[in-house]
Amino acid sequence: MSDAPVLVxxxxxxxxxxxxxxxxxxxxxxxxxxxxSMGKRSNLPMDNPRLQxxxxxxxxxxLVSEALSGCQAVAHLAAVASVQxxxxxxxxxxQSNFVGTLNVCEAMREQGVxxxxxxxxxxxxxxxxxxxxxxxxxxxxxLTPYAADKLASEHYLDFYRRQHGLQPAVFRFFNIFGxxxxxxxxxxxxxxxxxxxxxQGLPIxxxxxxxxxxxxxxxxxxxxxxxxxxxxxxxxxxxxxxxWNQATSLNQLLAEIGGLFGGLPxxxxxxxxxxxxxxxxxxxxxxxxxxxxxxATPLRKGLQGLLGLx
Length: 310
Ligand code: NAD
Ligand code: UD2
Fold this sequence. Notes:
The chain is of the alpha/beta class. The protein is 38% helix and 17% strand. It contains 10 helices and 13 strands. Helix 5 (145-164) links the parallel strand 5 and strand 6 (167-173). Bound molecules: nicotinamide-adenine-dinucleotide (NAD) and uridine-diphosphate-N-acetylgalactosamine (UD2). Residues 10, 12-16, 33-39, 57-59, 77-81, 96, 100, 119, 121, 173, 175-176, 182, 189 line the site of nicotinamide-adenine-dinucleotide. Pfam families: Epimerase.
């Protein structure tokens, strides 16, 4: 890799800021483009001279082009990550979640930058594959504007690959967790909500019986994969699931959190969320054959990391 900066869109957010830290730790220069709608300056080491923050929107084509200028590669993570926000406001979230991707592709074509990482989502599978490990060939069934924008972005990246030689490394994240995940919305990641409420002694709400399962993946493990994808001589063809093929129920999660705090605040149950997926688990065969997987950070260790107890 050259000394030229890596552009990280959404770099002030949860996942992006961990990637920025890792790139800076490797001695690289990083440019972040983030509109700070969810991201925060405080997530970034602003005093590091190799870091530059451009505050602005990926929907602004001219700004994306300026941000990319002189960069060697892009990690395109900027998006309105809340599925519910896309349901409530499909027009505005489309600007961030789809037009932003198109602007990145066009700027790369114009400037001859090839390598781009893209943060897609398990949401592209909708309810298909429920109850079994979902592999990448499972038929896609985007049920929300968020999922449709992610899937459309994948298709456009593939078009730019075939037509213009872009090298997209596309990841479909399952449930990522760790420090800096924002718990402030009811639709934030369940681990961020439960741990914050346990820490503050506030009641916890479980939607449904708590036996629904998710495939939780610690953010530091994800960052190792993203770094490999940036540096690999060739990109893996096709999208790659990011999960451990391991199901954890919310009840198991609560037991772990209770173990760390020596107890839990009151836990109540409400009706399941409409459309909630019962079981979501990644078939990660392609991930295993394409990348050097770090040892999985166990849930308890990840929770300790999140809570600053490690
Ligand atoms: P996040 O909200 O912390 O990060 C997203 C960042 O993008 C924020 O800093 C936000 O300010 C920025 N942003 C949003 N719209 C923007 C715009 N129009 N222009 C510039 N910046 C903008 O969320 P995250 O969990 O770190 O998600 C990172 C990426 O991973 C997103 O693309 C998200 O869809 C994807 N993803 C996350 C998960 C997960 O489990 N966290 C799962 C699947 C996919
Ligand atoms: C995740 C992603 C979403 C999308 C989707 C793909 C997050 C935050 N969301 O949604 O972006 O990629 O996967 O399928 O990563 N829950 C409670 N109590 C709470 C909050 C949540 O019981 O206070 C339940 C919720 O009903 C669900 C489970 O916890 O059954 C996980 O919820 P989530 O919002 O963390 O993630 P998910 O899998 O619905």
